[in-house]
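Fold Annotation — chain and its backbone

Encoding — discrete vocabulary of local shapes
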Amino acid sequence: MPGLEDLYREIILDHYRSPRNRGELEVPPATRTEGFNPLCGDEVVVYVQMDGDQLDEIRIAGQGCSISQSSASMMSAAVKGRTRAEIEELTRAFKAMMSIHESTLEGGEEVEVEAPTADLGDLAALQGVVKFPVRIKCATLSWNTLAEALGGDRDDRAEAE
């Protein structure tokens, strides 16, 4: 469906050209976490400031490809003001969308996976990334870095300082 692909491409480019929540926060009270994708050189720095259980402020810095930087921008807009539990559910939904199942890669039938209930909004524009497995780490780098910033374990061990 070319129309939908064009729309998704525009959303990705918009977030790449005009990233949301770009910048830094004072540390402390904010925390600063770095993520790096050694395969392609993408770098992301996530600054988060919590107010109790709610993410009060988030800023993103770094450099990299349009996929990594637009994903970081979309993520920052999607999680700002949410609780940890809401962020965890959104992260699960995003990573489920980014999942590749071996049977699909081998030309087999798609595997039914229980879809998380979170609404991905603009993040759905990144669903085409799964067609390019090497780019999935680009799309998930900021999410893994955010999980580390919030004290969670990261699935992909992107190097973080």
